[in-house]
Amino acid sequence: MDQSNRNKLVEIISVLLDIDTTKITDETSPETVDQWDSLNHLNICSAVSQEFSISMTTEEMVMIRSVGDLIKLLVSKGLSFE
Q1: What share of the chain in percent tops pLDDT 70?
Q2: Which residue in 27, 54, 67, 82 has the fewest CB atoms around it within 10 Å?
């Protein structure tokens, strides 16, 4: 996985959800982190869009249910996480 992109993504999520980076895996989701509510979901999408210079449709944002889903979306937009 491209550690640079992964590290950036993990750092964004860590800061916005106020959790340690070591607790963030592909399975991290609103079901596993209390702080990942609807407002923080939008904050994550916005921060990721800005950091990686991509845009997300509302439909794409709704489909993100975990960090792994977010990585899959970023890969579909041409970013490397391999």
Answers
A1: 96
A2: 82
pLDDT over 90 at 2, yes or no: no
Residue 67 pLDDT? 98
Separation between Cα atoms, residue 24 and residue 37, nearest integer Å: 16
Domain boundaries, the chain: 3-76
Do residues 56 and 76 make contact, with C-beta atoms less than 8 angstroms apart? no
Give the phi and the psi of residue 62 in degrees, each rounded to 5: -65, -30
For the chain, the maximum distance between any two Cα atoms, rounded to a whole number of angstroms, is 30
Q: Quick one: 3-76 is in which CATH superfamily? A: ACP-like (1.10.1200.10)
